[in-house]
């Protein structure tokens, strides 16, 4: 993106046409050598992040969120998941709310050893609370879920609620859930909780 290099180009007496006349490799070299942001990205010690952010290698998933994530260790096939999850395992659903930004719901099961398997995902952008609640119910038919934590931002008043009956996003989702679905509650967002969660992947 030329905007990251525009200030350096002006300082060097170069134009946008000059920049785009260079090869892709020459533009990247200039970005790395002449911009603070380029130098920051080049100095990343996590090679997976550096390859993705600096070189656009987005097929590299390792390290995007958790440096210890290894597909060979942490990803199971559908058959392996079906064999691993037993009827007596604890199951729950979690939700990271979003409307303009995507929402994502995940279903989890915990075995006797404390190992957590995330076995289903629902991802959507622009889905309202009522439709989401109904869809979560349909996706969970036949399952006994014990909990439904939701990201803290779902506690805000919903702009989609009726003006004379203000409700939070969480309340509107809860109103649309089946009766046998656990009532939502705000997930712990206190400092350090994401780090503690990351340890579950080790």
Structure description:
With 202 residues, the protein is an alpha+beta fold. The chain is built from ten helices and five strands; from the N terminus they run H-H-H-H-H-H-H-E-E-E-H-E-H-E-H. The chain has a three-stranded antiparallel β-sheet with strand order 1-2-3, with no helix packed on it. Strand 1 and strand 2 form a beta hairpin. Helix 3 (24-34) packs across helix 4 (36-42) and helix 8 (129-139) packs across helix 9. The longest helix has 11 residues, at 24-34. The chain is extended, with a radius of gyration of 23 Å. The protein starts with 5 loop residues before the first helix and ends with a helix. 12% of the residues are buried. Residues 195-202 have low confidence and may be disordered.
